[in-house]
Amino acid sequence: MAPDDRNRNAAQLLIERPRIFWGKVVALFIRRGWTPPPPDERITADLLEEFERTAAMTVAPVVDLPDIADAYPLTDRETQIVELLMVGYDNAQIADALGIAPQTVKYHLSNVYRKLGVTTRAQVVAMLSR
What we know:
The protein is mostly helical. It has two domains: 1-65, no CATH class; 66-130, Arc Repressor Mutant, subunit A (Orthogonal Bundle). 68% of the residues lie in helices and 0% in strands. It has helices at residues 3-16, 18-32, 41-53, 68-71, 76-86, 91-98, 102-116, 121-129. The N and C termini lie far apart (40 Å). The relative contact order is 0.13.
């Protein structure tokens, strides 16, 4: 896909499905080892302006992260939720970032707690920070 097409598709996704767009942004930040920004109308407007202004998007360097999924028996969605939890997102922010309901986040977190043998989000962070 040409850079212009990628920009058009990203801009269209941002306009039509902002929750999905922001979920992809957050996932990218997590994969690169960066703290994701919270979804923000000002940032959204700046991104749309940037999509219009530039034809090509630069690629940031990739940072190797430990793979939680390889070390623990978590599903892909549980891993995504844990990664957001690790950077300090609360349930509502996780739900917004992933385009799911807050109740779904609670459901996945309860599965994470059970699988890891813990009872709180602080214990998850402590366990996975080692």
